[in-house]
Amino acid sequence: MANENDIEDVWDDEDPEAEVSEVSEEPVERLRIVLDKRQEPLRIDKFLMNRVEGATRNKIQQAIEDGFILVNNEIVKPNYRVRPNDTIVVFETRRPESQEVIPENIPLNVTYEDDDLMIINKPAGMVVHPGCGNYSGTLVNGLSYYLQQEHIAVDGLTRMGLVHRIDKDTTGLIVIGKNEKAMTLLAAQFKKHTVHRRYIALVWGDLTDDKGTIEVNIGRNLRFRKIMDAFPEGDHGKVAITHYKVLERFNYVTLVELRLETGRTHQIRVHMKYIGHPLFNDATYGGDRIVKGTVFNKYKQFIDNCFSILTRQALHAKELGFTHPTTNEWIQFDSELPDDMKEVIEKWRTYTTGIAKQPK
User: Fold this and answer.
1) Is 167 a catalytic residue?
2) pTM of the full predicted structure?
3) DSSP code string of 143-199
4) Alpha carbons 342 and 336: distance in angstroms, whole number
5) For residues 292 and 299, is the Cβ–Cβ distance under 8 A?
6) Where are the alpha helices (DSSP H) in 22-72?
7) How far apart are CA 351 and CA 301, in angstroms?
8) Out of 45, 86, 167, 229, which one is annotated catalytic?
9) Residues 6 or more apart in contact with residue 181 via CB below 8 angstroms
10) Is the CB of residue 213 less than 8 Å from the CB of residue 271?
11) 171-192, pLDDT tens digit by residue?
12) How would you label 209-228 residue by residue, b for 16+ Cβ within 10 Å and e otherwise?
């Protein structure tokens, strides 16, 4: 059982989803308690008040109702009575912005920079903002060091210049505001959905239509709070709109471009899964297995080889455009696909050509 003195205050009333961010930090497991076989029945809110320092009963009850506390991997009510051998898991709900940011000399791929903003081409594997389990090596750690070298007072920048985010394993363009005015005006454009964002993705399956729009609410999964889910009835989550267009077909997978009209957590990944076309090698949303194709060893070996090259979801933030916060001119940026995506796409191109040449 965890020592009370080792438990930080994890309670925060703020909504964990940010309106202007494509990806806010996911809640991660903060505390796990396995109850003794002699545990007496006790309301879970009262039980946790004795084990989480600084937690009020109201905040515990709210966290339970929001699904940030699970018992035996199930959502329970605040009046649930704990039982012998129960496993209680508490997820982190605090925003990562509350963490102290330590400047680190991390190389940043700066595509563009002026007095007001920076455009950074983020590599795969880099977390945007420090959070539970990722306190160093993030984009913000590197950004803090970079801005200090330019003698910019980073302490005054809310969220260290961020106005949107992309996933750890998604590559591509992200804009950073270098002063409060720029941040405010850029954030307003994201909120009004006037920012141009074009992504390239490799998805499973052969899409029926050459283009289309997915408009389905997105919110946290009601059972597993670390992942997002689609709610077509609109009874949970927030409105999310994604436009897609087919670029190239490879029989079993399709290369598509996607434009975001809104910016919900994992929006593209959740929407593509919802229509039956999860992103290639997206482990969180079912793309890290053979979704379309045969079960023959040769095909399986081909897929495994692709997965070994592209060890993440096949998603790249290729284009980013917006009105400059000072000049009021429209500016737009483009980035090359990363090498791992280009290599896998070319392998699919070759594989498809080989199938077409086979005698019928």
Assistant:
1) yes
2) 0.74
3) HHHHHHHTT--GGGSGGGGBS----TT-EEEEEEESSHHHHHHHHHHHHTT-SEEEE
4) 9
5) no
6) 44-49, 57-65
7) 12
8) 167
9) 116, 325, 326
10) no
11) 999 999 998 899 899 999 998 9
12) eeeeebebbbbbbeeebeeb
